[in-house]
Amino acid sequence: MIYKNTYGTTVAFSPKQYGVYPTKEFTGSASQRKKPDDDDKPKPKVKPKKDKEIKLRSLSRRSKQKIKKKITCFARCYRKLSFVTLTFVNKVTDEQAIIIFRKFLDNAKKRSNDFQYVWVVERQTKNDMFKDNVHFHMITNKYWKIDKWWKYWIDLQKKNGIVPRDESFKPSSAFDVKQLNSNNIRAIGSYVTKYVTKN
Predict the structure, then answer these.
(1) Where are the alpha helices (DSSP H) in 21-82?
(2) Comparing C-alpha atoms, which of 133, 136, 174 is closest to residue 154?
(3) Cα separation of 79 and 180, whole Å?
(4) What is the torsion angle, in degrees rounded to the nearest 10, for the CA atoms of residue 164, residue 140, residue 81 and residue 123?
(5) Residue-wise pLDDT tens digits, 12-31
(6) Do residues 106 and 98 touch, judged by C-beta distance below 8 A?
(7) What is the pTM (predicted TM-score) of this model?
(8) CA angle at residue 22 from 18 to 24, to 5 degrees?
(9) How many whole angstroms separate alpha carbon 118 and alpha carbon 114?
């Protein structure tokens, strides 16, 4: 009887010792094994599909520390920083929000030299009208002309199908800018991280 294993070692056993001659060759290769018939295979149990509840992710402690370190380094590189909050004027899906925000950033990059930024997205929990709507917090080294960029942010939403609930409604909070002075880096890290690292 010949026995083969996957490493190519062959061992010969004497059939005289057992008095029975084997009818089949034993092999260790999966390709040489007899495949069971479809009827012999155990059929897996099919569980009925349930609608999975989407769990919201939250930042881990390590992620929060990373963000705080990046903000601190950012504050050391640039003397004047802006803390920008971009909010939507109506209900928006996460995909729509990212597309609109990306277009906003692309335009800001084209119009600014050395435009640097750190951004995070946050869900609005206190807004009863647009529950779980996302909005963006961003720290940049750019000086923002508020009237110009606020109007652009509202118009960009309209172009992408996010229309205010009232035609004359133009919330001033949709584009909010706070100037940060990098003289006190620790204060910037604490102040900004409080907003940026919310879950």
Answers:
(1) 61-77
(2) 174
(3) 9
(4) 50
(5) 555 555 555 555 555 555 55
(6) no
(7) 0.62
(8) 160
(9) 13
